[in-house]
Amino acid sequence: MNHDSYPDSYIRGILNTAKTIAMVGISPKENRPSYFAFKYLLERGYHMIPVNPGQAGKEILGQKCYASLTDIPEPIDMVDIFRGASHVPPIVEEALTLKPKPMVIWMQLTIRNEEAAKRAEEAGLKVVMDRCPKIEYGRLSSEISWMGINSRTLSSKRAQGFGSGVQRMALTSAAKTTNRTQGENDGD
Q1: CB 103 within 8 A of CB 75
Q2: Above 50 in pLDDT, residue 127?
Q3: Residues 107, 114 contacting (CB under 8 angstroms)
Q4: Full-model pTM
Q5: Element (H, E) at 107
């Protein structure tokens, strides 16, 4: 996998299949990027699990915080890492001990660790580095376009709603949108 550029289908596939996300390194401080990303994904329907040893046993945004991945009593689909690159290898090694293993290791913006990525991929996991799932979700769902940001996704179709308000768009694949639109137009 080329970790310098990811196809939209790869990112969309991950965001559509991962339902339970453990965020390692989340901060309870409302002004921290990890808090924003956690809150955003929680509001989009993901089951978010905070992992921060200093906050273990407490709650962040109503979710029980754990000291480590191995303390989490349920399966995890994706591990979202909000720690520096030097901390990534032990986190990946811990993730690989989980039963079942997560499907995805996701390293946040500016975080890259090629050795840890290789280890995860050799174990059958998908890997994303130097990206933010909050930003990618917003870009692929067209939410980010409402703020005037170029999402690199062109469409004449209005984004699907996912709740109330403008900022609640659903993440669907282009193929699903095209098929649904074609089906709706068949009766015209």
Answers
A1: no
A2: yes
A3: no
A4: 0.80
A5: strand 104-107
